[in-house]
Amino acid sequence: MADLNQPNPAALIAMMGTRARAAARMLAGLPTEAKARALIEAAAALREATPTILAANRIDMERARAADLSPAMLDRLKLDDSRVEGMASGVEAVAGLSDPVGAVIDEATRPNGMVLSRVRIPIGVIGIIYESRPNVTADAAALCVMAGNAAILRGGSEAVESNRAIHRALVAGLEKAGLPGDAVQLVPTTDRAAVGAMLTAEGAIDMIVPRGGKSLVARVQAEARVPVLAHLDGINHVFVHASADPAMAESLVVNAKMRRTGICGAMETLLIDRDYPAAGALIRALAGAACELRGDERARAVEPSLGAATAEDWDTEYLEAIASVAIVDGLDGALGHIAVHSSGHTDAIIAADEKAAERFLAAVDSAIVMWNASTQFADGGEFGLGAEIGIATGRLHARGPVALEGLTTYKWIVRGTGQMRP
Amino acid sequence: MADLNQPNPAALIAMMGTRARAAARMLAGLPTEAKARALIEAAAALREATPTILAANRIDMERARAADLSPAMLDRLKLDDSRVEGMASGVEAVAGLSDPVGAVIDEATRPNGMVLSRVRIPIGVIGIIYESRPNVTADAAALCVMAGNAAILRGGSEAVESNRAIHRALVAGLEKAGLPGDAVQLVPTTDRAAVGAMLTAEGAIDMIVPRGGKSLVARVQAEARVPVLAHLDGINHVFVHASADPAMAESLVVNAKMRRTGICGAMETLLIDRDYPAAGALIRALAGAACELRGDERARAVEPSLGAATAEDWDTEYLEAIASVAIVDGLDGALGHIAVHSSGHTDAIIAADEKAAERFLAAVDSAIVMWNASTQFADGGEFGLGAEIGIATGRLHARGPVALEGLTTYKWIVRGTGQMRP
């Protein structure tokens, strides 16, 4: 028989799931104000616990330094007063978002008098699997709770002490406002098998959101039996149409690639219409912004200083100051390239020709398609969602930046007066 | 190297998927009229091919009789003039449904002037896996095409000749209207491994819809890596609240259970409030309608002639004239029973007390919740959707009766004037 103090990972996740389901049923019925008040209490508790959280973080940081983690990982792990304050104000910001739960999607009265409504409801239990950033503990928990869901959190082992301290503060705040502590649970073990147990916890966990690097997302997508909300790659294209205004093209392309090269909305491939008259200047503008460029033969004919792209380059998310460049045969050439190489995240056209732009927007089958705007806008905050739990490139449920609405589903409510089916 | 004339199932499905994707890209851009016209041509082609379809069906029927298939299966398999006409008029009816593709879900202008729209688009490639009813070939294909999707159909091996004849007619009609024949493909082999290949064809098939009995749905849900739209069980409850009008309760309960006992919307468990004053009459009314009843101890105290329910009964979808009956402690007792035993399909309350009814509608976490109406209304046609591809009890994407809208997803369209992210 399993030792309940040391349950196996599957039994542990099943137990957590049962408690989460009970909490989720309670949360699903809460009015907006009750959820918002609980998050404001949680934010206050985070602020109050700052010394405890920072002390816990120091333990994580010492272990991480001893384990020779990279400076980038150490930076992601590190907390200070302003980062804890950032978490707390982030939780408060979520409390101010408009609540999708209870919204009536549509309503109809049938000829027999039955009234049908589709009404938004929480999804239920959300599993969040993340890496070294401890702030995800607070961000993800707040979004889940505001949408009426229970959360099961599994953070990176290098942040275990920080996550536990943040989690304790959050739960103390939620409980102070009368919410069940089981609404936000942290997987207590750093055993990697617990991740596998979450991914296969059908019935206990309704959706998994991985937050982290590509290897985490790839593992989650490969192993999960539970639906996953995620994107693996952001191989985003900007197509500069023959009709594009050269000044706009240069500034948008440089912004799309270089504003921040490490985010998923960054441009990775530049496609230039063979009839665009200022290809050389455009390529030089991007190179002049310190971007390494790898071109196809036609691009290298325009600008011989370019390196040569290999077949792999067209399917690579660089996430640094590198881009591939191809000259394509008009809109159809761009659509063909994008159909083969896009990861379905964000693709943009720069054009003055509205007809060409609308054809691009209709034909490109990505979560986000843009006309005359920088791909770097691919972000829940920039889209006016107030926050985001992630960006999804799957085809079902929620796509693109996902915030509270993507953490809900719907049910049909039928109100009758005794109707029987003939 | 694989013999292309006899590819292995995975290679076969991959090839079909590639052709389906190309067809889906073409369909996604078609105006409503073009899709409707193609379906009307397909319906005409079905009518014209009636002799061929019936000849093919006779071959299937002979083989089925030789294989000693049950009379129920033979009936599902059998086609005649009126059933082919039913298929054709069903396809025409789908052509008349309103097209969800292109609908703007919401739109917003950001402070920087970018205009964001969420627009409905087809899902892409839908896999349909079904059993002996050959009419699914036409029904499912029509719904997929009208929503702009390509379909990969895998019918039951006992209907192989009928399905091929129906499929040939459909494709001839679609092609006559200028649609690609690859928009509707029939898996040519009866090799069961082809089903497994469809279920794991991530990237090639975007969603699987199983149409058939519980063992098919269970296999699909267990093995699929592709998202599945389905319900496994319809363990539906009717709760008769203390405030229910006895005449309404009797007629609704009898209708919910006995109108057709074999459909997924049929009531399987009757829950009676201990304070409902006419429990004995209600139980006798249902028993008098020739329903076998299995009660808990309290129900048997009210009506000693009842058989005894075992623990299993509360989790059983009878799909015949049998129901389980329990007396529960008010609304909370009913909610507790339903939380444990409902399959998330359809659950109903009969009550005059509006407050109790609204609490039930809010708290029960099923795809469809009803107040004072028969659970037998759980059907796309009855919901005014014009048709249905199936009823879903999953929590994500589409729930309850699913028709054209459930065969679509959305993308974000951003229209700018040169906005860069600061």
Number of strands of chain A: 16
As a percent range, the share of helical residues of chain A equals: 40-55%
**Relevant CATH superfamily of the largest domain in chain A:** Aldehyde Dehydrogenase, Chain A, domain 1
Q: CATH class of the largest domain in chain A, anyone?
A: Alpha Beta
Notes on the structure:
The structure is a homodimer of 422-residue chains. Chain A has 422 residues and is α/β, with parallel strands linked by helices. The first copy, chain A, has two domains: 9-229 and 402-413, Aldehyde Dehydrogenase, Chain A, domain 1 (3-Layer(aba) Sandwich), CATH 3.40.605.10; 236-382, Aldehyde Dehydrogenase, Chain A, domain 2. The first copy, chain A, is built from 14 helices and 16 strands. The first copy, chain A, has a seven-stranded parallel beta sheet with strand order 10-9-11-8-7-12-13, sandwiched between helices. A four-stranded parallel beta sheet of chain A has the order 5-4-3-6, with helices on both faces. A three-stranded antiparallel beta sheet of chain A has the order 1-2-16, with no helix packed on it. In chain A, helix 6 links the parallel strand 3 (125-130) and strand 4. In chain A, helix 3 (50-66) runs antiparallel to helix 7 (160-176) and helix 6 runs parallel beside helix 7. Chain A is globular. The first copy, chain A, starts with 8 loop residues before the first helix and ends with a strand. Chains A and B meet through helix 10, helix 14, strand 13 and strand 16 of A and helix 10, helix 14, strand 13 and strand 16 of B.
